[in-house]
Design goal:
Helix content: 25-40%
Strand order of the largest sheet: 6-5-4-7-8
Shape: elongated
Distance between the termini: 27 Å
Oligomer: single chain
Largest sheet: 5 strands, parallel
Number of strands: 8
Length: about 220
């Protein structure tokens, strides 16, 4: 019954919870899925309202390379990539990120590299893309005409240069230490540079309606 189901959820949380990045442990169950072969619980921190999904996908960011190179999820079609690129460019314009000839652009989590290639082609920028997924970087390099691509974990202190604009789209929600990830941008960004971050909105209407199925 309901009591048994709640007991299962509490046992699952006890076995897998790892606490919020802000240091607090108190949380409420935002949504859960305990059937259909997919068991997870999304908790919302009672202090900062950040959500965390149990079980943890990564024990440390160094595990990301293994995870993303073993994962066989669906890839974007060319139509999807084109629409994605148009949407991101629209948001970049709305936030007044100014591209121009000679500007150095870094795309962290660049995937197939289509967005960065488009930016460099349209605005005459010099672009570098970074991603840990070897398969997507291979595709980015195969189509590259205006940008260069590196397959590695992002470390702003080891890039050997600074950038006028840094883009990171739908990456921060995947890292195990969001504040630490943000700090890594500082040594890679010029003093008057622009940092553009994009992440899914866990308080959007679609999430509030779909809950577990939003993922």
């Amino acid at each position: 019954g309901a009591k048994h189901a709640m007991s299962r959820i509490q046992e699952f949380i006890k076995a897998h919870d790892y606490g919020c990045w802000c240091g607090q442990t108190a949380a409420r169950v935002f949504c859960r899925q305990m059937s259909l072969g997919r068991r997870f619980v999304a908790l919302e921190c009672r202090d900062c309202r950040t959500q965390r999904i149990l079980p943890k996908a990564l024990n440390g960011q160094s595990s990301a390379e293994t995870l993303y190179n073993e994962y066989n999820g669906p890839d974007f079609s060319e139509v999807d990539l084109d629409q994605f690129t148009k949407n991101i460019l629209k948001r970049l314009r709305e936030t007044r990120v100014n591209f121009g000839p000679g500007k150095k652009v870094l795309d962290v989590g660049c995937g197939n590299g289509v967005l960065l290639e488009t930016i460099c082609k349209q605005f005459g920028c010099t672009g570098t893309g970074i991603d840990v997924d070897q398969r997507r970087i291979a595709k980015a390099r195969a189509r590259a005409r205006h940008a260069s691509f590196r397959c590695e974990l992002f470390d702003g202190a080891k890039l050997g240069g600074k950038y006028d604009i840094i883009i990171s789209s739908a990456v921060i929600e995947h890292v195990v230490d969001p504040p630490g990830f943000l700090k890594q941008f500082h040594p890679a960004l010029v003093d008057d540079g622009s940092l553009f971050l994009l992440t899914p909105n866990a308080h959007s209407l679609s999430y509030r309606l779909l809950r577990s199925w939003w993922r």
